[in-house]
Design goal:
The structure holds two protein chains of two kinds. Chain A is mainly α. In chain A, helix 14 runs parallel beside helix 15. Chain A is built from 16 helices and no strands. The longest helix of chain A has 38 residues. Chain A is globular, with a radius of gyration of 26 Å. Chain B is an alpha/beta fold. Among the domains of chain B are: 187 residues, Rossmann fold (3-Layer(aba) Sandwich); 179 residues, P-loop containing nucleotide triphosphate hydrolases (Rossmann fold, 3-Layer(aba) Sandwich), CATH 3.40.50. In chain B, helix 8 crosses helix 24. Chain B is globular and about 70 Å long. The chains are: A mainly alpha, B alpha/beta. At the A-B interface, helix 13 and helix 14 of A face strand 16 and helix 15 of B. Chain B: This is Peptide/nickel transport system ATP-binding protein.
Amino acid sequence: MIVWTAIALVVMLGIAWAFRFAGQAVTGNAPKFRDMPFGVAYGYVLGVFVLIWLVWAYLQGRSSDPAVANKFFFLRIAIEGLIIFSIAAWIFRLFGRSVGTAWSRKMFRSMPLTASFGILTIIIYAIFAIFAGVIAPYGQEQIIPGVAANIIPGGDPAMGGNPEFPLGTDQIGRDILSRLIYGAQNTVGIAFATTCLAFLLGGSLGFLAATLGGWLDQILSRAVDVLMAIPSLIFALLLMTIASVWAPELGIPLTVFMVIIIAVIDSTRVFRLARAVGQNIVVMDYIEAAKLRGEGLGYLVFKEILPNATAPLLAEFGLRFCFVFLTIAALSFLGVGIQPPLADWGTMVRDLGGFVNFAAFAPLAATAPLLAAGAIALLTVAVNFVVDWMLHKSSGLKE
Amino acid sequence: MTDETSDILVKMRGVKMEGRSDETWSPIINGVDLTLKRGEVLGLIGESGAGKSTLGLAAMGYTRDGVRISEGTVEFDGIDLLKASAATKRDLLGKRIAYVAQSAAASFNPAHKLLDQHVEGPVQHGVMGRNESAQDGIELYEKLRLPNPDQIGFRYPHQVSGGQLQRCMTAMAMSCRPDLIIFDEPTTALDVTTQIEVLAAIRDIVDQFNTAAIYITHDLAVVAQMADQIKVLLKGDEVETADTRTMLAAPTQEYTKSLWAVRSFERPTKPVVQSDAVPVIRVENVDAAYGTVPVLHDVSFDLHQGRTVAVVGESGSGKSTTARCITGLLPPKSGQIMLDGQTLPADYKKRTKDQLRQVQMIYQMADTALNPRMSIGQIIARPVEFYLGLKGKEKRRRVDALLEQIELEPTQYYHRLPSELSGGQKQRIGIARALAAEPKFIICDEVTSALDQLVAEGILRLLARLQDELQLTYMFITHDLATVRAIADEVVVMKDGRVVEQGPKKEMFKPPHHPYTDLLLSSVPEMDPDWLTNLLNERGVDNIGDAAVDKM
């Protein structure tokens, strides 16, 4: 296998050279082919070969022989998903370009497809999270009477599915679709609240440290260094274990503790960024002018520094949101996060995790835990696309 | 002279360039022709945004990101640079065409030693071996009159001064003995005393190797020393081209004449200050230090009402530090600052709102002095509201009046952001913000040094008019003696944190001077193309610029 791959790669070297030579000859030495480095030509050829293999694999995935089709099932789903999402993002961007104010239309015109995909996904998640109670067909903790547990996703009775439960049911007979929708509300909502709290905390302290400097800066920065020195997930686990003892005694839900603990741990990263950005702004002449005018601290921070720090902070907000979200999912997976019977994607992955073992011969059954994992992955990717785009815009880079 | 065409090195014909902004291509250069013979120096002048640098880069067949050459041809020694392959261009750039950028500090890689960066070009292009090129570099350093030519190459860029770095970069451009060097404002960021040294060095080396050069600058007096021919650009159009002497003696176009006339602005002399008058600001025996490093030594001078005191000196002489002492940002170690005969608290935090109001400041870089996220209206309205307590309509009326005072149309500019203004307009906003506090005293810290001459003159005239109308007192920090001549009533010369000489302007420009003042005065380029040659003949290379300063 390795030998064959190596031979194929070497053959491609020859094809790449021939491709470039042919390009030069056919186009009469057009600058595109004339100035093309060999590496680029090789990249084109390699890309074409990968594409051909993907097409072949996709056709295999649609094969009527279940043994062959099962092997390429997830690749098939991934390719179909990619195509569907690309079309949806493209239509969404087209829609954004023709509807809305001049400002928003201009924004959509300069937007890459990845960013419009990200925005679309975030909007859909937001709608599901806000209107979960209306959209979801069943309750999140509702064990539907007279319905079997472990109905396989897909809704095909021949494969062990049930058209009434398109995504199947979990091991105690709850509707996975409903739990996914409620999971958006719980996981995303809590992650959003936590990120906001982290920014409030880290941002204000960071700006304060940058503006005042001196001993306050030293104390805050060293405290943050200490907190950052402890691996965050282990630290969060430790604190959550302590909190799970306190929570019933104080009568406060454990979720509140979780929000505070993750917010504090993540605020250290926000603090560092806010302080660094703030320090760059504080040395500007307009800050000096405001200081010499006799302005107070509040005016300096909120009117002069904050508006100039929004771009990097907003980008960090997107990234931080992903990390918080993943931390919550991880904690739930480990059993100390969002507590049952509340639906949560992390918990769902853990509960249904065993089905992954069936992936080789019954891919539909293995899909059950992957649905929640996919929901997490999709949102993370979407947020990162939007953040990338915003960073690109605020840095003023040209293509 | 039978075959004249082979003498031509660069030939640009009908070059049109466009830049991409706001989703459309807008023209930058509208059809310019340029011809440069071997060994000839062409001066390219114009205000910022005229397309000088863009055109200079196009002569190398290069465009910045988001810029394209839409029409025309660029030929270098018979090779069409616009159609040449990447490999051909790679062979030319660095080897036969070199480029010297404005900011040497930003163009050197801070992680490598100077000599290592110097030899990179020759070794890559296979012109010389490493050792040979290093040896050659040391010789070039010697020719460019750098101190310790044997050792300076083993330093990192941050270990040498700005003028030296600029000369190192010229040496680097020379390393492959190119046929053409493009100098993009190589001395704009330097002090006059440093500039003269760099100018002498560049001219000398270009002469020695018979290199052709395109010298881009906005300073006419500088270009007059360097160039055989001058081409004037205005907003992407060529205004006129002529050889230097003709151009200086008899410019034909109105725009060129106006450029020439800028330096003629001078205010009438004011009567001598009465000896019993209380100065608006008195700086008395001020010593100051950054940490433990002393910066100012026993600085004293007075500023009287309605007058301008120019503080002159090279960078690092303590001009701006004096300003920081007056504003209270840097409390002096000893001595005091008096406002209307009353001692001001040393620290600005301890001053009253009214004391803060009386002392305002205008900054050198209007870009960093205005909050980019606030509209012009907000920027000016804030001091109006803060000091005078005006609100709503009254505030708006005051801001409009201020905008009219600085000659900007209120309805048009009120809602704009600083990024939507030109450099000169931004500086005007800085002036309006200072005026909004209704102060007695304004510190102008190099307010015109980042601006083109025409725009700078407009700012100077505005400041002069405002002074006459509002009886303001200015402290004018500058290193440009032409500005001093234009606006100052009294002059204070500083060197190494001490006041070297002070007195009325008339006396300053008349000998006898303190030797440092003399050096400063003699280093200011004049519009005479023979000025540098004469000065070098008169004084010798070792008695100009920083070399002479070191001898003091």
